[in-house]
Design a protein that fits this description.
The complex is a heterodimer of chains A (530) and B (414). With 530 residues, chain A is mainly alpha-helical. Chain A contains 20 helices and six strands. In chain A, strand 1 and strand 2 form a beta hairpin. The chains are: A mainly alpha (530), B alpha/beta (414). The interface between A and B is large, with 65 and 61 residues.
Chain lengths: 530, 414
């Protein structure tokens, strides 16, 4: 009894000692590798790879700090991690404060960044947070290394979240492909071939040169992926076309009212769009200091831009344009001049430089639609936004009293006046309405284009093109023309190039207008003769 | 319409010029006639975004020189005209500067097409132009000094970096550009260079877009596909001006990281990045001969001078501004050496001038009217500045006639 107990005791002590010694040894390796992070790019890559392979969780804060530019070096080579206002020693984790002047930020380059991604992946694959594990699997997948096979096999066995499992399996397949075991290699190829991922396809193609023996299997796997990708590519092109169409639609909608309904050739239309974009900048600047308002600054900019540009539009109509009704040439020259004045005024007030517009987080990055079709978030929002605005305009014209008066005045001014409609007021409101819509378009375009004084000039030609092609006076025509031109442009682009695609579209529209001068949806009946 | 607007513009500019120069007037110079410095940069239109800063740089230099006592005991006077991003108007304005205002030297132009437009005017009237922007080369005029980079001082070292271990050992290259003379010529030179490095035409994708192109989704998706053929790919961008912001935004939104597909740009500097959130772009590259982040005493002085002049401690400096600054100093040294402002006397005096440029190197004006300059490659950082990851140990002499264009084989070098 007694000896057995003492043996047990000894074993326990031994195990405890071993347990205590193991982290100490790992820590030693950690401490020897760590200073490399402060060296040249070559030394950094080596240190990062060693720290990643060690699997010591103490390396995680230092590597994260390095990738985020928060790792500092003192003159004696000590590394500090900056965390807000406090600093901690990278080796010991103890707080250590140093003066700003004594520290030097450690810079990295793309090669170090790539190595960091792989190392962080190796360290985070055991993280308790499924999102971190997912990101880690993604990182290992991209940096693929045969040495990661056992790590990934263990991680896969532990994993319970399906989407993380899927990613780890993919990373494992990619790592197996670069391993030397032929059976594992084939398993990797089969697993990669079963996906619809362009990255997997890229990895397979890359492996072709080194694996002449399994070439037929690789080719078959690539063909499999290609078949799945073909459908997605069509969807992608269609989305790109619709997205371009939505931008054209937004830019043209205001003009569809001022030119289409009222018949005013407004060359300053682009400048109203630009003013809308600048209103966004101002609203964001004002909201910057108010934390609770900040996330709402972009939605808030929509009504603000409408009001600002509508007010300027109303002033312009009452002050200038109304004196020139029925004289289109003079109106064209006048609005062109006003446009140049607005442009230069903005340039003097805000400078010629681009202004920064902040994109809220929900408008950044890529979203996955069903069937894994990737779409960029900002363009998807703009597409939806353009359709909403279109519906609102249609409703305003069809269903409100203002819309009724507007249609009455544009169809038969004299009779409308005899019915008691104040035609002057309706003219001003209609022009303000169209200008306000241009301002709203500016809010959306600020998310995809430069906010500079030249913003509007790029859209004026396209806007007229869409309105004329769709049929002057027809809102539905504007919608169809915008989306039609967008999709055709994007379909032509891959084989004609961006410049020629645009030329082809212009030529096609010219031929079409020759044949049907009144556009896709010509006005019929009395309105056509007005 | 154009006639009236031109007249109003001229009146406005005359007013502007008087307003700008009047406060600089000092009685001590009253005896001698001032030395006239022409400024030919667009202050309106598409190029105003880049060129207004250069106008301000020249005005700053004129003021600084006058504070130092002028040149040859004479006061300097700036004559500012606005060619409004309109290429034929550049030639008219150049003629106006030389014939009406009789300027002694001109600093101006940004795009190659504007330089090509004024070149015959400067040659006919024997003027002197300092051109401060990196360009495609294939030109040499006795009336122009080129203080920006020639292709061998920017484009070729940058692509060499991408092919090297630090740049990621790219095996496929995408050449993206705006559709005009500078990107087309540069890409022609680069194609010759890449072919000489064993990269075949099958591994080169070349695409052009119109000025101000804003819809990059299709092209970026195609670049992704081109990069997905199993070879490391890099983008070389000669996209100019306004089109850069939507391009970078699309790169960020489609999740193209610099570790996977790095891009190097030749026309994107600190000024252009001021309009975008650079966090998704960290690691993408730009090649220049100067970055604001350069650590050198000359740069500290240059930045302090600029921010004091423009009265804004947050305004950035960039490569063409540095080239304007260096060119102005070389001209001033040349005038001091020649003892006159006569173009024919100043020209030989400027050649061979050296200047400790803000880039941190001593640059020399070569007999081919180009500078010897260092080459630097910077990575975009989250704060919109560049982290310099590579620079040549020595200055590189400009080679304005590229050896990668077959027709140049018979041309004398240097």
């Amino acid at each position: 009894m007694r000896p057995a107990r003492s043996v047990m005791k000894r074993i326990i002590v031994l195990v405890l000692l071993l347990l205590a010694a193991m982290p100490a040894r790992a820590q030693d390796a950690f401490l020897t590798a760590l200073p490399g992070l402060g060296g040249g790019f070559g030394a950094q890559v080596e240190a990062v790879e060693r720290l990643g392979a060690l699997g010591d969780p103490r390396a995680l804060p230092a590597l994260r700090a390095l990738s985020e530019g928060r790792l500092l070096r003192l003159a004696d080579g000590t590394l500090l991690i900056r965390d807000g206002a406090t600093q901690v020693n990278a080796a010991t984790g103890a707080p250590q404060q140093a003066a700003e002047a004594d520290t030097q930020r450690i810079n990295i380059n793309n090669r170090v960044r790539g190595a960091l991604r792989g190392a962080l992946g190796q360290l985070q694959i055991i993280s308790p947070d499924p999102d971190e594990r997912f990101a880690a699997a993604e990182a290992i997948f991209r940096s693929r290394n045969a040495a990661n096979v056992p790590l990934l096999e263990a991680a896969l066995a532990r994993e319970s979240v399906p989407r993380v499992r899927e990613r780890i399996a993919l990373a494992l397949a990619a790592s197996r492909l670069v391993a030397s075991d032929p059976a594992a290699k084939l398993a990797g190829i089969t697993a990669l071939g079963a996906t619809a991922s362009p990255e997997a396809r890229s990895i397979l193609l890359e492996a072709r040169a080194a694996n002449a023996d399994v070439l037929p299997q690789i080719e078959a796997a690539v063909a499999d992926i290609d078949r799945r990708l073909a459908i997605r590519r069509v969807a992608e092109t269609a989305f790109q076309g619709l997205s371009l169409g939505s931008v054209l639609l937004l830019a043209a909608l205001g003009l569809a009212v001022t030119f289409g309904v009222m018949g005013v050739i407004n060359m300053a239309h682009g400048e109203f769009v630009m003013l809308g974009a600048y209103t966004t900048v101002i609203v964001q600047d004002l909201a910057r200091d108010i934390p609770w308002l900040q996330p709402w600054s972009l939605p808030l900019a929509v009504p603000m831009a409408f009001l600002v540009t509508a007010a300027i539009g109303a002033a312009m109509e009452r002050g200038l344009i109304r004196h020139l009704y029925g004289r289109p040439l003079e109106t064209l020259l006048l609005t062109f001049g006003v446009g140049m004045m607005i442009q230069q005024a903005v340039r003097l007030a805000f400078g010629a430089q681009n202004r920064e517009v902040i994109s809220p987080p929900w408008m950044q990055g890529t979203l996955m639609l069903p069937f894994d079709v990737p779409v960029t978030a900002n363009r998807l929002w703009i597409l939806c936004f353009s359709l909403v605005i279109f519906a609102l305009i249609l409703a305003a014209i069809r269903m409100t009293r203002f819309g009724l008066e507007m249609r009455a005045v544009t169809q038969r001014r004299a009779i409308a006046a005899a019915m008691g409609i104040r035609t002057g007021r309706v003219d001003a409101l209609t022009f303000a309405f169209g200008s306000g819509i241009a301002g709203i378009a500016g809010v959306a375009l600020s998310q995809i284009d430069n906010v500079s004084p030249n913003l509007g000039t790029g859209y004026i030609i396209d806007s007229f093109l869409v309105v004329v092609f769709g049929g002057v006076g027809s809102l539905a025509g504007t919608l169809i023309a915008a989306f039609g031109l967008g999709v055709i442009n994007k379909m032509l682009e891959p084989w004609a190039g961006a410049v020629l695609a645009k030329v082809f579209v212009l030529v096609a529209v010219m031929v079409f207008i020759q044949r049907r001068p009144r556009g896709l949806f010509p006005q019929k009946g009395r309105a056509a003769e007005a | 319409m154009t006639e009236t607007s031109k007249i109003t513009r001229r009146v406005a500019l005359a007013g502007l010029t008087t307003a700008l120069t009047a406060p600089a007037f000092r009685p001590s110079f009253a005896q001698a006639a001032p030395i006239k410095v022409g400024v030919l940069h667009s202050l309106s239109g598409t190029m105003a975004i880049s060129e207004t800063a250069l106008r301000d740089t020249v005005l700053m230099m004129v003021e600084a020189q006058n504070a130092k006592g002028g040149l040859l005991g004479r006061r300097l006077e700036a004559v500012v005209v606005d060619p409004a991003s309109n290429w034929p108007l550049f030639a008219e304005k150049a003629r106006e500067l030389l014939q009406v205002h009789k300027v002694d030297v001109t600093f101006g132009c940004w795009t190659s097409v504007s330089r090509k437009s004024v070149l015959p005017v400067f040659e006919e009237l024997n003027g002197m132009l300092f051109y401060p922007v990196q360009y495609e080369g294939e030109e040499e005029s006795k009336n122009i000094f080129y203080t920006g980079a020639a292709p061998n001082q920017q484009a070729i070292p940058a692509v060499e970096y991408l092919l090297g271990p630090d740049g990621g050992e790219a095996k496929r290259i995408v050449l993206l550009g705006t559709d005009y003379v500078y990107p087309r010529t540069t890409n022609r030179i680069l194609r010759g260079f890449l072919n000489s490095k064993g990269i075949t035409d099958a591994d080169i994708m070349e695409e052009y877009t119109p000025f101000g192109h804003s819809d990059w989704q299709g092209i970026v998706a195609r670049v992704k596909r081109f990069a997905g053929e199993g070879k490391k790919t890099a983008i070389v961008s000669t996209i100019n001006g306004d089109a850069n912001v939507p391009f970078y935004r699309e790169l960020g939104n489609q999740g193209i990281k610099a570790e996977d597909i790095p891009s190097v740009a030749f026309s994107v500097g600190e000024e252009e990045l001021a309009g975008i959130d650079t966090r998704p772009l960290v690691g993408h590259l730009a090649a220049w001969n100067y970055f604001m982040s350069v650590q050198s005493p000359a740069n500290t002085e240059f930045k302090a001078l600029w921010q004091a002049y423009i009265k804004n401690p947050r305004r950035v400096t960039n490569d063409p501004m540095e080239a304007t600054y260096t060119g102005f100093n070389m001209w001033a040294q040349g005038v001091a050496k020649a003892g006159t402002t006569a173009v024919d006397a100043v020209r030989p005096a400027v050649i061979g001038q050296t200047f400790a440029a803000p880039a941190g190197y001593t640059e020399t004006m070569l007999p081919n009217h180009h500078l010897s300059k260092p080459v630097m490659i910077g990575e975009i950082q989250a704060d919109g500045q560049f982290n310099i990851v590579y620079k040549t140990p020595e200055v590189v002499p400009a080679e304005n006639w590229s050896r990668f264009i077959p027709e140049n084989a018979n041309r004398r070098r240097g």
